[in-house]
Amino acid sequence: LSTAFVFNFAPYLVNPILGAIALIIFFFFAKRYYGEKVAIWSLLSLAFTGYYIFNSASYFSHTSCLLFTIVFVFCVHLSAEKPRDVTYAMQAGLFLGLMLITRYFTAVLVFIPVMISLVYRFRWISLRILLFMGIGALPCLLFLFWYNYMITGNPLLPVTVWADSTETIGFVKGHSFTRGVEYTIRRLLLFLYWCSPAILGLYFLFLAQKVLDKSARFVHPEDYFFILLLAGYFFYHHLGGNQYGPRFLLEALPFCIVFVVRKVFQAKSTWPLAFFAAGAI
């Protein structure tokens, strides 16, 4: 947001611009790895939800983090095409680092399935990919440590925790297992309202099929982002305040949609397509 003041333009334009850029990059990512048909329908399904439109018109950090997440995943896939070429691995690391300095808990949750997928698919070669990812992320990490040190006096003490020692993950500030269940249900209901009942229902159906399929289980780790963010933020004490849909899950939205769209077109039965079309409308 500070770029608006540096370059002297209206700050409310920042997130709409980032949201538009994210859509463009997402389309090219989906087209390359899922095909043009899936990419077009996924783009339309994403761009015309109130969930995406309203968050892209907000001041939330989720919009920039979403953009970084899309580029990170794109670079991970490009790196997997040529695992011995470190260029894309370093670029993936850079955007993972940008995610870390924006929303570090989200970045950690997103990285988990990516790391598992790389290790499973490439074994020892994955260490090389992960090493250069780390090198790519290093400038952002150094900046984050410097930022923390200048404010808190401790490079490993986040400013949010320094300002409020109870601002952590876990059962703090009256948060409990019961409240975690309540928040999870409310986030799912927000998703139904702001996005689509069809996307949500088909996502869990197709995810269960993916987990049971050994050949597909560790491919496209971004398919797990939605469920991991939902599970991770179960342990966060805040529902999200004023929000347009479940904002803590926004970074997973494009990948949730493209996963569902691909599976809908691959399905032998016609009912998933009909359900998806009704939900989209």
Secondary-structure element string: HHHHHHHHHHHHHH
From the spread of the alpha carbons, the general shape counts as: globular
What's the mean pLDDT score?
Answer: 94
Total helical elements: 14
What does this structure look like?
With 281 residues, this protein is mostly helical. Helix content is 71%, strand content 0%. It has 14 helices and no strands. It has helices at residues 2-6, 14-34, 36-47, 50-56, 62-81, 87-102, 104-122, 125-152, 159-163, 177-194, 197-212, 225-232, 253-266, 271-280. The longest helix is centred in the middle third of the chain and has 28 residues, at 125-152. The protein is globular. The protein starts with a helix and ends with a helix.
Please give a quick description of this structure.
The chain is built from 14 helices and no strands. With 281 residues, the protein is mainly alpha-helical.
Which features characterize this protein?
single chain; 281 residues; mainly alpha; 14 helices; 71% helix; globular
